[in-house]
Prior knowledge:
Elements: H1 6-15, E1 21-25, H2 32-43, E2 46-51, H3 68-78, E3 89-94, H4 100-112, E4 116-121, E5 138-142, H5 148-154, H6 159-171, H7 177-193, H8 197-206, H9 209-230, H10 236-249, H11 268-280, E6 284-290, E7 301-310, H12 313-319, H13 325-329, H14 336-352, E8 358-361, E9 368-369, E10 371-375, E11 378-384, H15 392-397, E12 406-410, E13 415-417, E14 420-424
Parallel strand pairs: 1-4, 1-5, 2-3, 3-4, 6-8, 11-12, 12-14
Antiparallel strand pairs: 6-7, 8-9, 10-11, 13-14
Amino acid sequence: xxxxxxxxxxxxxxxxxxxxCLLLYGARQVGKTYIVDQFAKDHYDSYISIDFxxxxxxxxxxxxxxxxxxxxxxxxxxxxxxxxxxxxxxxLLDEIQDCPPARTSLKYWAQDDRFDVIATGxxxxxxxHGNAVPAGYETKMMMHSLDFEEFLWAMGIPESSISMIYSYxxxxxxxxxxxxxxxxxxxxxxxxIGGMPDVINQFLKTNNYAVADELQNQLNMEYRDDIxxxxxxxxxxxxxACYDSIPQQLLKDNHKFQYKMVKKGTTSSYYEKSFxxxxxxxxxxxxxxxxIPEFPLSGYKKSDQFTVYLNxxxxxSAFYGFQNKAPLLQNTLVGNVKGALYExxxxxxxxxxxxxxxxxxxxKRTVQIEFLLExxxxxxxxxxxxxxxxxxxxxxxxxSDHIPYGYKxxxxxxxxxxxxxxxxxxxxxxx
Length: 431
């Protein structure tokens, strides 16, 4: 069983006094159904699961009246083993985007308040086709693939060892080289395997990177199939083209998304709805440029200038081909692929720590910073270096009185120089 941090959030939701239905969303195969199954097993006497993708016939339950008593009667007819115990039943409506009326019914389950209801969805950017979205009656919770710390747990690293690494982050002391090298070996393994639960489980069973790679390529194909199935016809081909272009976009020295690499002569307005759908489906995240690196960053966002990152670093590694994985694991990979992977790695880690993603590049590109964080109402710049190289852009920003410090993330050890904090790349999980 893979330990997931989101379990704590599910428990908090269950214990909340003004509880609504929970909408757990995220990309396909990040473990939504699995975690709900485990949650129900540990915290409820009765668990009823309706999977609209596996059993399409169950959609008929939600045809017609949506009052709770009628729905209970229909569910009991289709699923005779169901037990509706007030205040001790969890109902899962799995892949709810396949049954829009079930999404509408969340309002009535919430108003009834006798039973806990969780809905999961993978493509919630899809239109509700005339069915009402129950605003005010659902709590939304985003679920990602495993983050780096969860990956370490899966690899058998105890929390006490991670706490020991964290102590070096707090103190700023040099990490013993043998510990530092071991952490980097796990980090590179995470870059190759990624955080998709099925990929991790298969690797743990087989210790075979080729098996993991095959699963990753299958997932990438399934994502493309989902776009073709669920996206509106007006954006379908555009969204697939945008998704497929990401690995190539990240290989450029200037990682700003360029529409001409997808189709010549197109502009941001041509693709905006496609990007919105892909983001809502949990497949990618946009990192926006800002006019000036000042707090709050959202006030200076340039909506038409962004970098695009995949939400799972392992899937990006698979895009670049199996032949790149051995050099990555052995730390001998060179060229633009290495830079793209390490930058997407940090985006992966920051995204799963709930950091909004921003970067800064001035008009002349004389200053370029991969990421900007917000800490204690201040902007904190971060440069990502696969090696311990100079950071002229970070040095310029640190001259500002408004910026208290900055991070230089490297494949090395900790260090301090004025306002610049040098950290091993894996310590991004502590930010």
